[in-house]
Design brief:
Helix content is 29%, strand content 30%. The longest helix has 18 residues. The protein is of the alpha+beta class. Helix 1 runs parallel beside helix 2. The chain is built from 3 helices and 7 strands; from the N terminus they run E-H-E-E-H-E-E-H-E-E. It is globular, with a radius of gyration of 15 Å.
């Protein structure tokens, strides 16, 4: 694996670029995508890794959200750092599966396509950057992934 770069990243701008490249994919899937970013919230980390993790979370949200659904991406400062949330109105994840979805190649039973959710990649990226990743989900209502990152002082 490449060593992680330590750079100051304007995550709001970075994600805006990812959203722009996903717009066609999202609208072709019959979904709406909302993005709300607090300006100038910087983190120290690896821009490529942050881009990969974010793109992964957005792709998953699109894949598991039926037509007519909504995906909302938010980037904002919190008390001690900053948090990225990717929320969808998708099929949701059963409670008993939630603690397993970040394992390598884990597939939730109802998700048969693909080679797992790519969430183990997101988790390892988060860990390398000193970030925390978590999820809240309700079956039939959707999921909300959170990545909390330390901010650059």
């Amino acid at each position: 694996a490449e060593p992680m770069k330590e750079e100051v990243v304007n995550v709001g701008d970075l994600i805006a670029g990812i959203i722009a490249t996903h717009e066609m994919f999202v609208s072709d899937s019959g979904l709406t995508l909302e993005y709300d970013a607090q300006p100038d919230v910087m983190v120290v980390g690896d821009a490529d890794m942050i881009r990969q993790a974010t793109a992964n979370l957005i792709s998953n949200a699109v894949r598991y959200t039926p037509r007519g659904g909504r995906i909302r991406v938010v980037w904002k400062r919190t008390g001690t750092g900053a948090v990225l949330t990717v929320a969808d109105t998708g099929i949701g994840i059963p409670a008993e599966e939630l603690d397993k979805i970040f394992e390598r190649f884990y597939k939730v039973d109802t998700f048969t396509q693909g080679t797992g959710l790519g969430l183990s990649i997101c988790k390892s990226i988060a860990e390398q950057m000193g970030a925390q990743i978590g999820v809240d989900s309700a079956v039939g209502e959707g999921s909300c992934f959170r990545v909390e990152m330390p901010i650059a002082e």
